[in-house]
Input
Amino acid sequence: MIILKEFQKRMIVNYIIGSLIAVFGVGSTFIFHTLELSQEEVYFLLLVMFISVGVMILAEFFAYKQHIYPIKLSLTTENPSLTLIKEAYRSAHRFPLMTVQRILGPHLLGLSITASVLTWVFIDLHYIQFPYSYIGLAWAGAILVGIIHAMIEFFLSQRIIQPLVTHFMRIANQSYGVTLTLAKKDVISLQKKLLISSIFIAIIPIVLFILASEVRTNRQPGHTPEDFWAWASVLLMVIIFLAIYCSLLLYENIKRPIDTLLTSMKKVQKGHLETIENIYSDEFSHLINGFNHMVLGIQERDQQNEEMLDRFFTIFAATLDARDPYTAGHSIRVAEYTVKIAEAYGLSLSEIDLVRKSALLHDIGKIGIRDAVLLKEGKLTDEEFEQIKKHPVIGAKILEQVNLPNDLKSILPGVKYHHERYDGNGYPERLSGDNIPLYGRMMAVADAYDAMTSDRPYRKGMPIEKALTILEEGKGTQWDPAFVDLFVQEITKQAII
Output
């Protein structure tokens, strides 16, 4: 599986980085820069180091196979059980800690025991000329170098476990509907990380320097102050680099979840309510959980507000229609027809919802028309028709005065321009073609169709076929041809009445 290959590849890279810095960087510098060795002794010590590193890698490999087994089994099994997924999830979270255990266990023992035995043999054979007591000092140095290596790989490993943790969380949720969590014993608190890292950064380099000084000054006397400072400056450079590098690793480990939270908070400010996958096992896990609860609460509140607003639009439309018993349900039907056009046209869900709201309120301006004109059963006079023609503008002004939020302001053009004609002979502004706002062109078709097919006190609603024929004949003059075609197709296909 790709995720497993990528994880193991990055583990190898981390191992190389940690080994280069700790074993070959710090360890080798302290050995070869502190001891005064002949060329032959250098060769033998290099031989000791390479053989010891080989044994160390072999010992650590067997430990690594045991640690990776639950993860590998879960990723390579076609339908892993929930128990297996949980174990793999726990192993992924514990992998940085298990990395420390490998380095301070088989890694350290494989290196130190092999190196001690070989060095003892070479001293005994007089290939290396220094006291046996140096082996004891080397053990102390090896433990310190091992701790350095372990700390580096701990933080590097925390970078690469996140895709694994995310994968197991998703599989458990999708396949079993379970949200994975860690037991308290598996949590490595931020307090522990900071405490151990601070001790490591402050004390380990000093102890290493003290060990090197013990060998350099007490066991190899006769050096001038200039020699001492030349030697000490190199070691100090190594120690400073080590302290800075480890501080950066700790800083990144803390900064990453903070950046995730800040990015998500900015998204929330912009209205994008997305939860964060909780891949952390320290105090940041509680922060992420708190953030997710906040987002879910906002989503629930917004959904309730949206449902309330939706009901308000529907009730208001029904209230408007109730003023004229012969057009009852008109606004709701126009909204349904307009939604069908919008869906066929391919608008997004959010835009479809807006055009529906706009259609529900498209006749809100009729509030401002006198009953004597609005409810007149006979033919309207020219003056009365001019009053009726004002309702789109009245409706837009009413909605402008209520200070709609920005995400609802796009409903205004539909209310104001649903009586414009495609040929420019409509009202209120005699707009034409694509100059008529999109919602207005859609609603014009839906509004006309419902007006033609609905019963009036002075006439019965015409048959669907005749209404569709009139729409077809009015393409390009009264209505947008594209929306007429879409609506006719929908009516024919779904038999909307």
